[in-house]
Amino acid sequence: MLSKGLKRKREEEEEKESLAVDALWLDPGHAAVAQAPPAAASSSLFDLSVLKLHHSLQQGEPDLRHLVLVVNTLRRIQASMAPTAALPPVPSPPAAPSMADNLLASSDAALSASMASLLEDLSHIEGLSQVPQPLADEGPPGRSIGGAAPSLGALDLLGPATGCLLDDGLEGLFEDIDTSMYDNELWAPASEGLKTGPEDGPGKEEAPELDEAELDYLMDVLVGTQALERPPGPGR
Amino acid sequence: MFPKFSLRSMFHGAGGGNDIQWCFSQVKGAVDDDVAEADIISTVEFNHSGELLATGDKGGRVVIFQQEQENKIQSHSRGEYNVYSTFQSHEPEFDYLKSLEIEEKINKIRWLPQKNAAQFLLSTNDKTIKLWKISERDKRPEGYNLKEEDGRYRDPTTVTTLRVPVFRPMDLMVEASPRRIFANAHTYHINSISINSDYETYLSADDLRINLWHLEITDRSFNIVDIKPANMEELTEVITAAEFHPNSCNTFVYSSSKGTIRLCDMRASALCDRHSKLFEEPEDPSNRSFFSEIISSISDVKFSHSGRYMMTRDYLSVKIWDLNMENRPVETYQVHEYLRSKLCSLYENDCIFDKFECCWNGSDSVVMTGSYNNFFRMFDRNTKRDITLEASRENNKPRTVLKPRKVCASGKRKKDEISVDSLDFNKKILHTAWHPKENIIAVATTNNLYIFQDKVN
Q1: What are the phi and psi torsion angles at B348 (to 5°)?
Q2: CATH code for the part of the protein at B20-452
Q3: Between chains, do A65 and B238 touch, taking CB under 8 Å as contact?
Q4: Domain residue limits, chain B
Q5: Check: complex ipTM more than 0.85
Q6: What gap in Å lies between CA B194 and CA B208, rounded to an integer?
Q7: What is the domain extent for residue A145?
Q8: Does residue A150 surpass a pLDDT of 60?
Q9: Tens of pLDDT along A171-194?
């Protein structure tokens, strides 16, 4: 779905000049277009909508409002055409709206997948800012943390792999330290939903989530500490 | 609900004592018919005093006009608007991750209220919002010890006396500098920005999300509305516009492509996914068509200055809502009902997706919106009278009273009327603005800005 440097075209209507539309539609006396439309007219509207949908999805970054409105209109047309199944004028009309759905989803999923692979490659390079920003007179030079949030979906796909460059090295370093307290999943990089940037900024919206085993361990530690500290009761 | 047409009042503009006669004042922009794409005006906005008028265009530029101080002797017209500052707000950018160009087109400009000598405005393209400071400089320091007047440094050994530099007057220079850049918070295209009445925060809305920013902080924004479904296949509705309430700093509204408006209270929860109020008018069954949803999509929402009402613009009409009544608007004005029978053609050429804006006058008594053929419409809420005017270079003489226009929907066309089929659908007025205090309006055609004023006797 990626298109290289595709600039959005302004004159989209030029491409649709040749589309034939029934003269019926241009009759000014024809009020509401379709209470009970003729099948032929309905199907030409259907074709027109599918064409628009394809055109919209071919753009690098489709106008979401336009896309959604066309898809919804297509669904309406398809719903009205369903009873007249005698001669389907268009190859598999029921497939089209679901194809539209798939196209809608795949454009985002494909986008996420490509983004994910790109991000993995880029993870060793400093920063995740997508576009170089011009200098602005701001106080503390903050990396735009907000950029991570919208693409969180793609980032989640990355998983733990990218953060563990020093995994083997660390264990060697700490050999002489009693690591029994740290030998649990809580501290392993794999358990955290890491962002791959070198900075974990203050604006990070997701905290690492503890699972049940880790919570149990924590509780044990706390209870164990309290047991040691509990003063002897009367008569004991 | 529909205002009664009064032909008499429409042709004899000044009927009663309160009727305004609109006159041509100025037109800005290129004269030739060949429109350069970068010059297409994409937003128009007066500042809070009305002294400044900003436009944004498709080329990412902002042009600010300033009203001349009224000449008390010449009482027959108000001050003219002249260019005050021009600057490049946004540049085209390349998103390397998606291999896409990010358009530099300015989608919206919003002014901050003036706090000191400088003026501030927010301008936004699809992805990035910028805070610009526009300041005047009319003095410069002269008489440095170590610098010549042309800026070259003097050899310190040649300095035999010392003097204190003094400020001397210079020709007025207006400088625009970007003070904040709010970036990387929107995956989808930004359609609205709105400054809160606390003057410290503002919201930005894209197709699926609304974020809250603090004007001082650029590396963090809070997401307050998120309508993105978990599965994009389920997407059926997008956000089309959003605005803060003019007085209540915890309240904002956002409109959707399905014709609904949601009012949200930020005190209720951090993520305002549940609305406090939902404004929606039930569909008129006699007008149902395949295009019902598209024409119900709201392209603009604006609170009245009082804060008691809000106005929405959909493809064919303008609706006024009382914030206390959710189930239907209190007033509906048909902008170009004659297009209802043409919806299929308008769908074919994509005109049905055009996003018209609307605006209130300073006293909330009249509303205005644009149409095709460079026509624009005004609806007087008190008299229920409406008028159609045209922005055209033919009415070029200053203080020429504009002649009302009429579109002939069907049947015999009268003299001076124009038939629907003769309308030029490439000449659309999407952006209009009304001076906050006076009867001065700014109307943008494709690449020209027209300024009209009421006739001052």
Answers
A1: -60, -45
A2: 2.130.10.10
A3: yes
A4: 20-452
A5: yes
A6: 16
A7: 39-225
A8: no
A9: 445 455 555 655 554 444 444 444
